[in-house]
Write a sequence for this structure.
């Protein structure tokens, strides 16, 4: 009888422990960001002439946390650090979604221009999209 009780306790404890699952860890999902396409917009790496004017349009939507800021930066000729071109902290009415069109005029010299578009949410999750323009 004692063996049966011990066996039942061990079996019950084993079943209990096997069914205990860790709570899933918050995945920290970054904002959803897409390029606008068609017409006047570029949405991929490209080659353009000197002093050409193009548009890059971005649309950001909240995933799990309110949107906080939008930044556009650039770096020339393979530089590792970027320079801020546009920085904006979103208003409360824009926390769920934000859209912006940016006009870019390529330099008057041949080389590469890396444009980085970043959206940050309230928890610091970042989504970045990059376009490299080769200027000829």
């Amino acid at each position: 009888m004692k063996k049966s009780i011990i066996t039942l306790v061990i079996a019950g404890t084993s079943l209990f422990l096997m069914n205990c699952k860790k709570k899933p860890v918050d995945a920290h999902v970054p904002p959803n960001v897409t390029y606008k396409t068609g017409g006047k917009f570029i949405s991929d790496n490209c080659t353009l002439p000197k002093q050409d004017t193009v548009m890059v349009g971005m649309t950001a939507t909240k995933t799990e946390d309110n949107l906080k800021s939008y930044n556009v930066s650039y770096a020339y000729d393979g530089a590792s650090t970027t320079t801020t071109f546009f920085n904006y902290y979103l208003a409360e009415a824009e926390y769920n979604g934000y859209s912006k069109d940016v006009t870019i005029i390529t330099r008057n010299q041949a080389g590469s221009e890396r444009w980085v578009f970043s959206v940050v949410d309230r928890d610091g999750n970042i989504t970045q999209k990059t376009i490299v323009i080769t200027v000829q």
